[in-house]
Amino acid sequence: MGTSINTQQPEQNHQDLAGPVAVKKIQELVKQAATCFLCTAITTGKRFEVRPMSVQKVDDQGYLWFLSASDSNHNAEIARDPAVQLLFQGSPHSDFLSLYGTAEISRDKAKIEELWEPLVKTWFTEGKDDPRITVIRVAPSDGYYWDTKHNRAIVFAKMIVGALTGKTLDDSIEGKLRV
User: Fold this and answer.
1) CB of 109 closer than 8 Å to CB of 150
2) pLDDT tens, N- to C-terminus, the chain (179 residues)
């Protein structure tokens, strides 16, 4: 059996993050991939449901905010079981994020106003006052991230040197997140 790639790393490639540092990492990675897969019905033991969703905001507490239709399947699923998983991919080789959390649905008009942007009118044709519009707030509890430590040019250079020398010189960093 071969050796794990992680044991061949000459650099530190694992760092667990908690509290405000974890929130900052979540904000950073979500900015790279503003669309995620929202997974619902994850605790039923049956097939869970998955659909793409656009994150409207990640606040300083780490809450992720979405706008959603009251008559959507995912709103119904969240009403039955608020446990969710969010999956993000910001680029082909990095900026990956998996979060577990609890979703809550509201009709908070002030929050709808705050999160509104013109493109959302595609789904809510009556605008901010559309009677179907709801807010989903996901409070993450924990997750896992895969990222790079440096900019893309350094990452690419390390990959080339690693390939030429036969050494594992990838620039990755990964770890658990606790919010």
Assistant:
1) no
2) 444 445 555 567 899 999 999 999 999 999 999 899 999 999 988 899 999 999 999 999 999 999 999 999 999 999 999 999 999 999 887 899 999 999 999 999 999 999 999 999 999 999 999 999 999 999 999 999 999 865 454 444 444 444 455 555 455 789 999 99
The answer to whether 48 and 40 are in contact (CB under 8 A) is yes
Q: Which fold has domain 5-178?
A: Pnp Oxidase; Chain A (2.30.110)
Domain range summary for the chain, segments of one domain joined by +: 5-178
Distance CA 26, CA 86 (A): 11
Burial code (b: 16+ CB inside 10 Å, e: under 16) for 80-118 equals eebbbbbbbbbeebbbbbbbbbebebeeeeebbeebbee
Please enumerate in sequence order all residues whose Cβ is within 8 A of that of 5, keeping only pairs 6 or more positions apart, or say none.
Answer: 168, 170
